[in-house]
Every structure is written in C-alpha cells, then in structure tokens.
From TrEMBL:
Coiled coil: none annotated. It comes from Undibacterium pigrum. It comes from the Bacteria. Belongs to the aldo/keto reductase family. Aldo/keto reductase 2 subfamily. The lineage of its organism: Bacteria, Pseudomonadati, Pseudomonadota, Betaproteobacteria, Burkholderiales. InterPro entries: AKR_Detox_Biosynth, NAD(P)_OxRdtase_dom_sf, NADP_OxRdtase_dom. This is Putative oxidoreductase. Keywords: NADP, Oxidoreductase. One of its GO terms (molecular function) is oxidoreductase activity.
Length: 307
C-alpha cells in the first residue's frame, strides 16, 4: 500500500496549538551517542518527514537531554522556527547535576515551575516553549498556585500553552478548573490499555483535546525475540505480524496505527534515534485498520473476546 511520507498536523485543543501527529521524543537523546552535527541532521530528517513537534523534559538524560538539543539548535538556528517545543517539569531527581536535591520527589510549587521552565529555555537555547506539562501528579499540588505560575509564564511570553502528564481524570479536571489545559500525556500501547478503559481518553474526547501517547510500542517489549516474550506479548506479536503481512507494512507501524485510530485523535511520541523507526511511525498515519483488525489486536492483548 502507499505510505505516508509526511506526518499530518492537527490542532490539539479548540484553542490550542497545532502539532504534528507524530512527535519526536528525545528522552533517550543522550544515549544515542550523536555528535552535535549528527543531532542537527537527525532533526532535519525528522522535519523532512513532517515531524515538527519535539518532546522533552527537564529531567531527561539526567538533566542533560535539553542541553544536547540546545547544542544542535545553536548550530542550526533556523530550526528554532520550524519546531514546536514541549517540555515537562515537577519531578526532582537525585543527581550530581542538582546537588540540592536530597531525595527524589515532586515539586509543583510556583517557584519550581517557573524556574524549571526558564532553565529549559536556556538549555534548549530557545525563547519560548510551545507547551509545558506537569510531569506527574503531585499529592501536594495546589491548583491555584500552579495556575498562577502558568499565568506568569504565559503573560511573560515564555510558554504558550499548558497541559499535564499521567494525570487521572479528577486531577485533570481540578487543574483545568483553574487554567485551560490542552493535553494529557499518558501511557498507551497494546501492552498497556488502561487509558482506553479508565475514562482518560473519554475525557479527552469530551473536551476535544488530543492526548499525547508515550511508550506506544510498550517499551519495545512487543519486538523482543519470541523466546524472550511472555504469553501475552506472543499473542499480540502474532496478530501484529498477520495484519502487517496483509497490509504490507511493519508490525511496529500496525501497533502505532492501532493507537492513532482512536477517536480522541492521539499524538504518538517516538523514542528511537533510528530514522527507519521514525519513518515507520509516520507510515502509521496513513493506515486505517478495519474494525475486525483493530479488535483482533485488542482481544490478543486482553486475552479474551469482547463480551
């Protein structure tokens, strides 16, 4: 079948930004052993595939991933205006890069949110974030205080839009009652279907906001050697292989197409430094599974037929 050579774009919320459907996830950037110039080439190759949105976080790569991206941006300043930049804050890791952190914990105080966003801008060598997410729900989060931090960052021109990651519906609704949110970045894959059934994607549809999906390939567990897979992964892999053969694409492309087909209009984050894997993700945007194909994969994951 003919494959998409370019990721489509969509507006992720009624008053939100327009992002590419495939998002370049850079949490592993430091492990790819790329020179700064190789990082520039990687970004340009992603752009050529229609991927215009980059996902980062302050803590990625032991607080180094954003700086590695920034080195590439400094080498190729024209890229600043061609990408939308997403980052996250709210987790404090124990790291020699942050000697003041005595233990791993959450911090959604206004002071930390503002300082983290400003540090992300410096590290990535950009002037504005398109989207800032609270990385994990904080039991001590004060919705009014967070809203105040968001308002400060927006009014100062440092961040355009705001959202959350890994929030339950009640946590999302609490913060959204104080400040407009444009996405919830959550885990979803054939090995982790919870968001399909706990109301997360239902709320996204209700509010007409597109979720952002991380670990869409189950951390690579679907594509290990057969002998290393558990029974569930083997069931899923077998159905992926069958449908991939029918549609003449890779099993990875089918696994992502299964997510992209959900009516909440998810955006899928990549996690690979291999261009071939990025291309497979873009290919998924051109595929529509039949309902029987989609449910064959659901059933393989659930280990049962629908009721």
């Amino acid at each position: 079948m003919s494959m998409s050579t370019s990721s489509p774009r969509l507006q992720i919320a009624p008053n939100g930004p327009e992002f590419s459907r495939i998002v370049l996830g850079l949490w592993r950037l430091g492990s790819w052993q790329m020179t700064a110039q190789q990082r520039v080439s990687f970004l340009e190759q992603a752009l050529a595939l229609g991927i215009t949105t980059i996902d980062q976080a302050d803590i990625y790569g032991d607080y180094q991933s954003e700086s590695l991206l920034g080195e590439a941006i400094a080498l190729a300043p024209h890229l600043r205006d061609q990408f939308q930049f997403v980052s996250k804050c709210g987790i404090k890791l124990v790291s020699d890069k942050r000697p003041a952190h005595g233990m791993q914990h959450y911090d959604t105080s206004a002071a930390h949110i503002i300082a983290s966003a400003e540090q992300s801008l410096r590290a990535m060598q950009i002037e504005q974030l398109d989207l800032l997410l609270i990385h994990r729900p904080d039991p001590l989060m004060d919705a009014d205080e967070i809203a105040g931090a968001f308002r400060h960052l927006q009014e100062s021109g440092k961040v355009r839009y705001f959202g959350v990651s890994n929030f339950t519906n009640s946590q999302f609704e609490l913060l959204a009652s104080r400040f407009p949110l444009v996405t919830n970045q959550v885990e979803l894959s054939l090995l982790h279907m919870q968001a399909l059934h706990d109301g997360t994607l239902d709320l996204c549809q209700q509010l007409r906001i597109a979720p952002m999906i991380w670990s869409a390939l189950g951390g690579g567990n679907l594509f290990r050697l057969l002998a290393e897979q558990d029974e569930r992964s083997q069931r899923i892999s077998a159905v992926l292989a069958r449908i991939a053969a029918e549609l003449e694409v890779s099993p990875g492309t089918i696994a992502l197409a299964w997510i992209l087909q959900h009516p909440s209009r998810p955006l899928v984050l990549t996690g690979s430094g291999r261009l071939a894997a990025i291309q497979e993700a873009v290919n998924a945007t051109a595929i529509t599974l039949s309902r029987e194909q989609w449910f064959a994969l659901w059933c393989a994951s659930a280990g049962k037929n629908v009721d």
